[in-house]
Design goal:
By secondary structure, this protein is α/β, with parallel strands linked by helices. Helix content is 41%, strand content 19%. Bound molecules: zinc ion.
Length: 339
């Protein structure tokens, strides 16, 4: 591997999730040199979990033949809410017991290099912007649709965090007043209607024996209904499933249209469910949005699926560091890319 004079050419990334933690080392161009996955043993407490992360990070540095002198910064992606300026994780629904964890302080003490912390939705938006579908664009909205709906916004070429770092909560805009209850306590949020969890709960409320293939597909066990069961049934030609998906797409298009009216993006990047079944989602969404927004908004607007797939967590933790580098470093990187 080519290592030129100045050293410190590498980035260490830590992606903390409720079930897994990804640790990786790579170059600025997003070339991974070493990676490792750990199970998040939440019940052992944050101190032991983070100790294991630190040990593993040192291990993979060793394996890669690098030392901390080669590492320019560490990016930590974690579920929020958190304060990226202080690097403190306030709390996270999928990390029970973790309260006010000073992630930056802990990692800076362990490694002695700059540490940058970002919530996972914003970090994923940065990842798709730096390395994925949004490369080179200036105004991009990213939505990830799994259990919930998270989002991140790149506006005017920068991550937009808002006054209390809570911007980009695109999943909690209300698209159906008095609609189904959302995990946040409100009714009719986009997340309650169109996330994987929201779709499963809505299906549970309407799937009946004899009316749809979905009943037989889950053998009457309605707890097994999911977005995947829905899209499988649509592919089998089930009219009930098709109608349900159409309704879901209308809610989703409404949510996206709201964002378009306010932010006038050039690209909307949709992850997870949409990225897995682009043909069932993207064309109908583009068509529906055409009816909902103005022609001016549509000029050059692209609605696309995310590109990074299951690797997004690694790229996300990386991108946090890239996002924090000063413009001089970035210009040097751009020159290197051009060469
Ligand atoms: Zn909500």
């Amino acid at each position: 591997m080519k290592k030129d004079g100045g050293g410190r050419k590498f980035v260490l990334g830590v992606d903390i999730g409720g079930t897994k933690i990804g640790i990786c080392i790579g170059t600025f161009e997003g070339r991974f040199i070493a990676r490792r996955r750990l199970q998040t043993k939440v019940d052992e407490g944050e101190a032991r979990v983070l100790d294991e992360v630190v040990r593993s990070a040192y291990d993979i540095l060793n394996e890669a033949g690098l030392t901390l002198k080669d590492v320019l910064g560490i990016g930590v992606s974690a579920p929020g809410p958190l304060d990226p300026r202080e690097g403190v994780l306030f709390s996270a629904p999928n990390l029970p017991g973790w309260r006010n964890v000073p992630l930056r302080g802990i990692f800076e003490e362990a490694f002695g290099v700059p540490v940058y912390v970002e919530n996972d939705a914003n970090a994923s938006a940065l990842a798709e912007w730096w390395f994925g579908a949004g490369k080179g664009c200036k105004h991009m909205i990213f939505l990830t649709m799994s259990t919930g709906i998270g989002g991140g916004m790149i506006l005017d070429g920068r991550l937009y965090r808002g006054s209390t770092f809570n911007a980009g909560e695109v999943g909690h805009q209300v698209v159906l007043p008095d609609g189904p209850l959302c995990g946040c306590g409100k009714r009719g949020c986009l997340e309650a209607l169109c996330s994987g969890g929201g779709i499963a709960r809505r299906l549970k409320g309407c799937v009946r024996r004899g009316e749809t293939l979905m009943w037989d597909m889950v053998r009457g066990d309605l707890d097994r209904l999911s977005a995947k069961v829905l899209t499988d049934a649509v592919r089998k030609g089930d009219p009930f499933a098709k109608e349900f998906l159409d309704e879901t797409l209308r809610y989703l298009a409404q949510g996206l249209a709201n964002l378009v009216f306010i932010l006038n993006p050039e690209m909307i990047v949709l992850g997870t469910i949409v990225a897995k079944e682009p043909d069932l989602f993207l064309e109908p969404l583009r068509r529906l949005m055409k009816e909902m927004v103005w022609d001016e908004h549509l000029k050059g607007l692209e609605v696309v699926s995310a590109r990074l797939g299951d690797e997004i967590g690694d790229y996300a933790s990386f991108s946090i560091v890239l996002n924090e580098l000063n413009s001089t470093t970035l210009k040097a990187l751009e020159r290197r890319e051009e060469e």
